[in-house]
Specification:
By secondary structure, the chain is of the alpha+beta class. It has helices at about 105-120, 125-140, 145-160, 170-175, 180-190, 195-210, 215-225, 230-240, 245-250, and strands at about 15-25, 30-35, 40, 45-55, 55-60, 65-70, 75-90, 100-105. The chain folds into 3 domains: about 5-140, Jelly Rolls (Sandwich); about 145-190; about 195-250, Arc Repressor Mutant, subunit A, CATH 1.10.10.60. The protein has 9 helices and 8 strands.
């Protein structure tokens, strides 16, 4: 996927999954789509389709899914016949105005989720479950090859960000890559260092606890992975602009 499109699904709100179906295309079949009514995500069980939009060709095969843009017109040519699951949806903003190719690492997992969606769509009461499952699919296909390399490190961070011993060496070993390569990949994807990413998570967690207002500063510092209250207070003030005590007084939640 193009680096500029890597975060295409960030903060996306899906308002409706309007159809879930499989298109069976024979080899050498050509089609033309005019003013597509909704966005679509398509991937294939087997086969190969070449889409043409504004003079640019985009391939859909077992290694590439595509996002099909709402309101656009394009042609497609089925180079190899096969079955192509499609999820049609609406969202709260313009997602893209061209066909976007997305590398796929685990098409079997996508097909499994798609089959579940297909069954759930038979009952209207399952609307929220369908959308929830669709968000999971979007998350899966939005992970680039770099993201796949980093996934074990991210899981480790999510589960252990409050551990003061967590460091780049541990995270790089989770990915089975060198520490230098890990830091480079991480910065390219998240635009920050692993250390700063972890500090940001600790600060966010500290804000939650401070807003609840029922714990001592020293306890919050320890729970959030800071080596001392002094270190916590200095770091918090540098990032937030106020001390933890000031933040607690101004942000305490009294209402449900």
């Amino acid at each position: 996927m193009d680096r500029n499109m890597e975060h295409i699904f960030d903060k996306l709100v899906v308002t409706e999954v309007c159809d879930v179906h499989t298109v069976h295309n024979p080899t050498k079949k050509s089609s033309a789509i005019t003013n597509r009514k909704s966005y679509g995500i398509s991937f294939c069980r087997e086969g190969k389709i070449i889409y043409t939009h504004n003079g640019k060709d985009v391939v859909e095969d077992s290694k590439h899914a595509v996002i099909l843009p709402q309101g656009q017109s394009y042609t497609l040519f089925c180079e190899e016949g096969g079955a192509f699951p499609v999820i049609e949806f609406f969202c709260d903003r313009e997602l893209c105005n061209t066909i976007v190719s997305i590398p796929i690492e685990n098409v079997a997992g996508l097909i499994s989720d798609y089959e579940t969606m297909l069954s759930l769509c038979l009952v209207d009461e399952n609307r929220l479950r369908v959308i929830s499952l669709f968000y999971g699919i979007l998350h899966s296909i939005s992970i680039s090859s770099d993201g796949l390399v980093l996934r074990h490190a991210m899981k480790c961070i999510e589960e252990n960000f409050t551990d003061p011993a967590l460091n780049n060496s541990i995270l790089a070993s989770k990915c089975r890559i060198s520490e230098v390569y890990f830091r480079r990949l991480f910065f390219e994807r998240y635009k920050t260092t692993p250390k700063q990413y972890i500090i940001d998570m600790r600060i966010s967690r500290a804000k939650q606890l401070l807003s609840e207002g029922n714990m001592k500063i020293s306890a919050i510092a320890e729970m959030c992975g800071f080596s001392s209250s002094y270190h916590f207070c200095r770091t918090f003030k540098r990032h937030v602009g106020v001390t933890p005590t000031e933040y607690m007084m101004n942000s305490r939640v009294y209402r449900i």
